[in-house]
Amino acid sequence: MTDKSVSEIVARCEALYEDLNFTAAREWKEAEPGRKVIGYMPIYVPRELIHAAGMLPLGIMGGGDNLEVIHGDAYYQSYICRIPRSTIELGVSGRLDFVDGMLFPSICDVIRNLSGMWKMLFPEVYAKYFDVPQTYQDEVGGVFYTNEMREFLHDLEGIAGHKITDDDIRASIEVYNENRRAIGDLYALRAAQPWNAPASEAYLVIRAGLVLPVEEHTQLVRDYIAAASAEERPLKDNSRVILTGMFCEQPPLNLIKSLEMSGCYIVDDDFVLISRWLLGDVPTEGDPVHNLSQAFLHRSMSTAAKYEPDQAEKGQFLVRAVQKAGAEGVIFASTSFCDPALLDRPILQNVLKQAGIPYIAFKYAENSGQMQPIREQAGTFVDSIKLWSAA
Amino acid sequence: MRSPNVKAQPQDVVKDASMIKQKEMMASHYERLTGAPQTGAKVASTFVPGNLNELIMCFDLVNNLPEVNAIQSGLRKQSGGYIMEAERAGHSEDVCTYVKSDIGMMMKGNIGPNGKQLPNPDVLLLSYTGCFTFLKWFELLREQYKCPTIFLQTPYMADGKITKNMIDYMVKQFKEDVIPTLEEVSGVKFDIDRLREYLAKSAKAEDDLVHVLQSAKNKPSPIDAYFGGIYYIGPIFGAFRGTDDAIDYYRFLREEVDARVAAGKGPVTPDGDMGEEKYRLVVEGPPNYTSFRQFWKMFYDEGATVVASSYTKVGGTYDFGFRHDPSKPLESLAEYCLGVYTNRSLPMRIDMLVNYINEYEADGLLINSIKSCNSFSAGQLLIMREVEKRTGKPAAFIETDLVDPRYFSAANVKNRLESYFQMVEQKRSGKGVAA
Ligand code: SF4
Ligand code: SF4
């Protein structure tokens, strides 16, 4: 049992979320000499390896709606999404000056090209495009990925100035397994009692995991679950929906709140996917790098940036998510100018159509301010879901 | 001032042997494609960057390139309608218009440039190089065609080098997946010697292509390496790499270009021989196809020749020495895919453009930023500043789209170009350098 209240925990998470100077991560680094911080962008990197090197993995999800972008716009045309420009802003404004390395996962051409820009803009900082396989046979994509991870480990050893043993990695896998379990429990609680664990809170709790050491974050998630379960908040006549398309540029918090205010219980989503990317525990016996590779190949989530080799499987993850969470509809919220999300959307919508699952769609940017149209659209959607279910 | 009498009038334009040859090649290719249902030929749809034409030919498959179809639709001013069609069907206005042009064309019955219906593919060969949009594009097509889809992942050259892990990964994909599936689809057994033979032919044509592209180092340049270059790369980027036709075409082209150099002539334009060469430019980014001629005219009317371009390297980068190599067939195909322009890191792209400006003695860099194309466009503003810094030559930025006519504003582009040419002039006079 915890003695912290929901509001205390959420207030702490919100402060972390709003802190664009990453004070918590800076303090962690300063607490002991020789500590290093490695930043990463969406969607996924094996944080276990960074942790095993004794470093802090720091999630950078752009600048949100509080960051004034002064320099970033000089780097991007108007028709490119916002996350790369706000991330550049974080960099050139010195907010990431304590970061010892940056990882740019293989997700889309924008993040890919940003990896090269980072090398040019910050030549003294380690910058890596983190490639992952899009083919899933053990001997093909698996070997490629294992080698990529080994190369990354080698780089990390160079930055850390010491060797990273397999036992170090195994221990880190266990620590992250605990974190994944806690987050799984939080999602289960929210799906079961969304009135007690609303998405706008769960989101902040998950986001805190991007800046805090994982052990501390696991405890925080557990504390939140305990506190939220102990409270009994009023049940509303809301509709249960799943949000999808937010796997990279994050929505403003206000957007999540607006959806809730317009009558949605968000019972699943694809925010901050890294925290749930690997499904279930990663084994701690045997070759740990191989285990991480296996988990990636065979037990990881689906999203637009990941190739689905099997046409019959395409989009089924969403149908299953709807069933699992008992959702009544899906909201496609896609970042403006996001090719992966927007090109995937019609395919997923066809799958939902066939499964008889209602949906709506809109676009957003991390700094969208005007919520009225979204509120109205979501409100109408909720009303129509109710009508259908009454019919 | 330009002297208009130097130029041939359109009616005087004599078609060179290479032009006639290319026309015939394209026509026969589209006949082969659209005739596939009658002849029983099987069709593989695939992309230009990472096009594995030699391998496709080993299985007697006919190569269909959706991007080339989109370009054709753009040139024939049909892409605008196709794009709207796709948008009406639920595709976002924000995404790549190549994809929407292709999907719209499919929705409208898939009529090819020869006025006949293009066949449905028997296999989608998703050789995925230099752009993530390809992946989504073929997922969308797969949904429609429900045919086998082969996926070939080309790792990104993020650190400016090709590693053993990258080559091994690609060769394994060829062996474990690409080749067996192509055998299955076509019913033809793979013969590596056949592949070697095609690759040797590729290399031969590639030598001549490079000779042609590098002829632009002459003053005046006998070619326009962007607008004209797009025609020159057609056969080798499309369905002809590895064929005798391509060897012939590039031989003709080489001879013609050499003759132009000997005669001190500039490039051929749609209005005949170009007048005096006043500006030598390097261009980064794809062109606009819906107003292609108008766009080109804005250059040659001002005496501007493009002496090197990055777009002519999207289907393969040959001018730094790479050739398809029959002695290591699969590795060579892997290397080819890895080396295409858009699979190169941003620093590599900058190096390449700087190299072009220096080697081709260009006056500066012009970036045509394409709304559709994140692969090219994300980062171009930094590229521009960096190239300017390193070469001391002025750079300019224009924005258009590949095949969406809504994003080509002729007046804006023309204004930009005019002020850019003035900038070049100023730079020259400021430095006291005579052109
Ligand atoms: S929001 Fe979409 S387009 Fe932009 S960086 Fe993320 S995945 Fe790429
Ligand atoms: S985004 Fe660019 S490279 Fe990719 S398919 Fe579209 S035009 Fe081609």
From TrEMBL, chain A:
Entry-linked Pfam families: HGD-D
Claim: Ion transport is one of the keywords in the record: no
Entry's Gene Ontology molecular function annotations: iron-sulfur cluster binding; metal ion binding
Keywords: Iron, Iron-sulfur, Metal-binding
Residues making up the signal peptide according to the UniProt record: none
Key word rRNA processing present: no
Sequence similarity: Belongs to the FldB/FldC dehydratase alpha/beta subunit family.
Protein name (database record): Benzoyl-CoA reductase subunit C
Organism: Ruegeria marisrubri
UniProtKB/TrEMBL annotation, chain B:
Matching InterPro entries: Benzoyl_CoA_Rdtase_B, FldB/FldC_alpha/beta
Keyword Iron attributed: yes
Keyword Metal-binding appears in the UniProt entry: yes
GO molecular function: iron-sulfur cluster binding; metal ion binding
Domain of life: Bacteria
Entry keywords, A to Z: Iron, Iron-sulfur, Metal-binding
Similarity section: Belongs to the FldB/FldC dehydratase alpha/beta subunit family.
PANTHER family in UniProt: 2-HYDROXYGLUTARYL-COA DEHYDRATASE, D-COMPONENT-RELATED, SUBUNIT OF OXYGEN-SENSITIVE 2-HYDROXYISOCAPROYL-COA DEHYDRATASE
Protein name per the record: Benzoyl-CoA reductase subunit B
Provenance organism: Ruegeria marisrubri
